[in-house]
């Protein structure tokens, strides 16, 4: 199958012309082939750069959102750890609870586990506006 070709006439600096002549002197190559490949590679790099610029802002925004989420998760994990340590310290030397108190505690624990499971299943989206203002100021 034959392709159409358009003739172009242009000028090259002497040093590029000499390099093109040297490369075209190798068997199985031609100036047309070398220039076609070089232009194709140049156009691809340019298109890749434009695509990167187009998606770069959105990607940067997503990275900032993930970083905020990681900070909040670290904060919440630390708070939960402190709370558990506090509770264990408070209940370390208490006498055994009576049966009614044990049932009440078990019911509350079961409700806590159920609520935590429901919240985890929902996987709520966190908006940038829901970050506390003091944290936004630190990030700015």
UniProtKB/TrEMBL annotation:
<feature type="region of interest" description="Disordered">
    <location>
        <begin position="121"/>
        <end position="140"/>
    </location>
</feature>
<feature type="compositionally biased region" description="Polar residues">
    <location>
        <begin position="130"/>
        <end position="140"/>
    </location>
</feature>
<protein>
    <submittedName>
        <fullName>CopG family transcriptional regulator</fullName>
    </submittedName>
</protein>
